[in-house]
Amino acid sequence: MANPSDEFRLVSPRVNHEGRLPRQYTGEGQGAKKNISPPLEWYNLPEGTKSLALVVEDIDAPEPDGPIVPWTHWVVVNIPPTVKGLPEGFSGKEEELGGEYSGIKEGHNDWKVPGWRGPVLPHHGHRFVFKLYALDDELHFGHKVTKQKVLEAIEGHVVGEAVLMAKF
């Protein structure tokens, strides 16, 4: 049996798996302490990983008068396998950070803007799923990246998936 510590995994130093999403990562924080993208770290990339893609969704988001449809909060692609995580507040700063971060591209969330956008909810208790895909290829996108384009592009290229879940 595989040793669980060898598993491909996604963690956050600020968010426990199935724990609460702290306010500064939501749209309900105070002043500059809101809508900050949370720090993420990953371990044990699967063999053959050439790039990583991240999709963050509220899986309990209801349509106003309809079914539950996941709401996309963040899409990040072309994360090189040499990068071991994204620092707190990374969103919108990939070029400023430079180096191996400079090729990372943030896609559009369901507010139709690129980058991280934290939740503002009428009632709490929603589950946020951070899903990191290890891919055997680099993705090439045009100008606008969306969750849909990512999920289509990664088909047949996923060598591993790691999930972190937070509640809000």
TrEMBL record:
<feature type="region of interest" description="Disordered">
    <location>
        <begin position="1"/>
        <end position="40"/>
    </location>
</feature>
<dbReference type="InterPro" id="IPR005247">
    <property type="entry name" value="YbhB_YbcL/LppC-like"/>
</dbReference>
<dbReference type="InterPro" id="IPR036610">
    <property type="entry name" value="PEBP-like_sf"/>
</dbReference>
<dbReference type="Pfam" id="PF01161">
    <property type="entry name" value="PBP"/>
</dbReference>
<dbReference type="InterPro" id="IPR008914">
    <property type="entry name" value="PEBP"/>
</dbReference>
<protein>
    <submittedName>
        <fullName>PEBP (Phosphatidylethanolamine-binding protein) family protein</fullName>
    </submittedName>
</protein>
